[in-house]
Design a protein that fits this description.
Length: 648
């Protein structure tokens, strides 16, 4: 890593940042000069061989909104980088080479993020792209356009449509990803074959102003579409019926590019909506941040007007518990050189806001532990003239080894955090405003479950629907020769499965993924464990949308002191009947002594008993609901765990 003093690049306060982006109405923001940053160092970190890769060499930088996606679309066990640049769609291996059949030239420019998901349930992923001529394209892994596409959506080309990304979600409940797209004053939902689920229109003078968010915000099992007009936030049902609309209250208020995100901040089962906006054409040209309840009513303490005049917010909020208070916050950038962080009640998430000196920031933040210290960092691109990729810690200071020089501004884009080649180390992928694709492999271990917001719009489906909450109530049983692990099913509708990790200490920064199980499993057994040492475990869920959730609680299994005496030899336990409707009997084959404990799947012990020099133990389920129960037998032959099914 080579360092270049910022003093050699910035002549104190006279440098002007990259060209500012007009808002959705066409007004330009106030442009701020760069601050004097001579005490900070820029890092020149070598990129992965094959990068940086110039995807297109424009005479005028156009840039893109959203940023790259990372997914294993060819099922070879290694993720690929999917990105559109100008009028071309790329799928790149980790070494920078193209996947066979790629790149693909599109019908027009693409200035928005692609969406990646399985829209036809064939086990392979498709790529959905919106081009500025109003076409939706869907490509299979081999680069062939899917039947029914491209699909043209009529629109006013002078309205703000270019930076709106397609969103994938199962809108009609058929267990397949559908496509939601907002263009101009139209919202349309399409099936994977191009047939229309619903199409409807809304009022806005400049067209839709950002990528919609899609999710069940009110817990009714139906999925809502949150759409930004210029001065009104809409909530549509899947059939196009307006659930509610909430007008911005300021005379000059308007949305631009800052997409809504959906988060259950107060854990009440209802999702709040957060987004940035600004005053345009009058007032103080101030940036603002809003939050609304699931019914469209502004949340208490909101909106917030940013203190700096001209501090417009184009940044889509990112979500995470950065300040480690066990509650989620949102983090955004502004033109006014600040990172802003807010709690649900509208108070600042200490120590944020933080002044960075990076003026005119228009892109978005991603959040994850990028230096393997167990804390979350905020990572984002800047609009400095020579380009910088910056990172800030939970303490509000620049992270070690950042900023990184990239030689071009960010525009409206964001980086992505992943372990692309599954080598256990942090990768950062980033497309700058000049369509140069960057890939760094950092020297720190990737931390699964510590990347709550790894790409813009949260996931590969662009939903903005935060569902990375940790798996609930993870617990473990010591079964002498194995460790039995149990948890409660994760509530995400696109739950795909679970990863179980084992660690040598309680920090769990050094981890081994020992098991991957299906979405139907809530029980796993570690049969390869070394019982002579301490073992710590956590579990994460992974989603079809390409997200791994946050870590569960960490459980500890202490070492056995004399394994050879505790390991049972030629000893077995039979369980009969199983399932049972009254009592279940455990037979040992010889007379032993011990005790049993019965747990429900929430980890609560609901019954216990003893047996002395007996060949059997009997448990009768009294006044309990039908379901799965876990029985732990602690005997003079060792500890054993069994699962029983009670059917009343």
């Amino acid at each position: 890593m080579n360092r270049i003093s910022l003093a050699t690049l910035f002549l104190f306060s006279v440098v002007v940042s990259a060209s500012a982006m007009p808002d959705a109405k066409g007004d330009l923001p106030i442009s701020f000069p760069c601050a004097a940053l001579s005490t900070t160092d820029i890092m020149e970190i070598p990129e992965v061989p094959g990068f940086p890769d110039t995807l297109y060499d424009p005479s005028t930088p156009y840039g893109q909104a959203g940023g790259p996606k990372v997914a294993d679309i060819d099922l070879d066990g290694e993720r690929e980088i999917i990105i559109a640049a100008y009028d071309t769609l790329f799928v790149k291996h980790y070494d920078g080479t193209n996947l066979p059949g790629w790149p693909i030239h599109l019908s027009s420019l693409c200035r928005s993020a692609v969406a990646v998901g399985n829209i036809d349930q064939d086990s392979l992923l498709e790529i959905v792209v919106h081009t500025t001529d109003g076409n939706l394209h869907v490509f299979s892994v081999d680069g062939i356009e899917e039947p029914g596409f491209p699909y043209f959506i009529p629109h006013d080309p002078y309205h703000s449509n270019d930076f709106v990304s397609p969103v994938l979600f199962d809108v009609d409940g058929d267990k397949k990803c559908d496509i939601v797209m907002a263009i101009d004053t139209t919202v349309i939902a399409l099936r994977g074959n191009g047939s229309v689920i619903s199409e409807f229109h809304f009022e806005t003078p400049v067209g839709v102003c950002s990528t919609p968010a899609v999710g069940d915000i009110n817990g009714d099992g139906l999925f809502d579409m949150i759409v930004e007009g210029w001065d009104t936030l809409y909530c549509f049902r899947e059939d196009g019926e307006v659930e509610w609309r909430s007008a911005l209250t300021g005379e000059y208020d308007g949305f631009s590019y800052s997409a809504p995100v959906l988060v259950d901040f107060d854990s009440d089962g209802y999702y709040e909506i957060a987004a940035g906006y600004h005053e345009s054409g009058g007032g103080d040209w101030a940036g603002k941040v809003g939050m609304w309840e699931h019914n469209g009513v502004p949340s208490s303490g909101w909106p917030i007007t940013l203190a700096s005049t001209g501090s417009w917010v184009y940044s889509t909020p990112a979500v995470g518990d950065v300040d480690e208070d066990e509650e989620y916050e949102i983090y955004l950038l502004s033109h006014g050189s600040y990172i802003y962080g807010y709690d649900y009640d509208g108070t600042g998430a200490s120590p944020y806001p933080v002044y960075t000196g990076y003026s005119n920031c228009e892109g978005s933040i991603v959040i994850g532990d990028i230096n393997s210290d167990g804390h979350l960092e905020l990572l984002f691109g800047t609009n400095m003239p020579d380009g910088l990729l910056a990172a800030y810690t939970y303490a509000g200071v620049p992270a070690d080894s950042f900023p990184i020089s990239v030689n071009s501004g960010a525009g409206l884009t964001a980086p992505a955090i992943a372990d692309i080649n599954d080598d256990g180390y942090v990768d950062i992928v980033y497309l700058d405003m000049n369509y140069i694709l960057h890939l760094w492999s950092l020297p720190w271990r990737y931390q699964p479950g510590l990347v709550p917001w790894g790409s813009c719009y949260f996931d590969n489906w662009n939903t903005g629907f935060f569902r990375a909450e940790p798996v609930d109530t993870f617990f473990a049983f010591d079964c002498t020769t194995s460790v039995e692990l149990h948890w409660i099913k994760h509530p995400a509708v696109d739950l795909a499965g679970y990863n179980i990790y084992r660690c040598p200490d309680s920090t769990c920064l050094d981890w081994t993924r020992i098991l991957t199980v299906t979405r139907y499993d809530t029980v796993a057994s570690d049969t390869t464990v070394d019982r002579g040492v301490d073992n710590y475990y956590f579990v994460t869920a992974f989603l079809d949308a390409g997200v791994e959730t946050q870590r569960s609680n960490i459980v500890h299994i202490s070492p056995l002191t004399r394994i050879e005496e505790k390991t049972p030899k030629r000893f077995s336990i039979s369980v009969y009947p199983n399932p049972f409707n009254s009592s279940v009997r455990f037979s040992f084959g010889e007379a032993i002594s011990g005790e049993f404990e019965v747990y429900n799947l929430s980890g609560d012990m609901i019954s216990s008993g003893n047996f002395v020099r007996s060949k059997t133990a009997l448990w009768t389920a009294c006044n309990l609901p039908s379901g799965i129960y876990l029985v732990r037998l602690k005997t003079d032959k060792g500890n054993f765990c069994r699962k029983v099914v009670y059917m009343r």
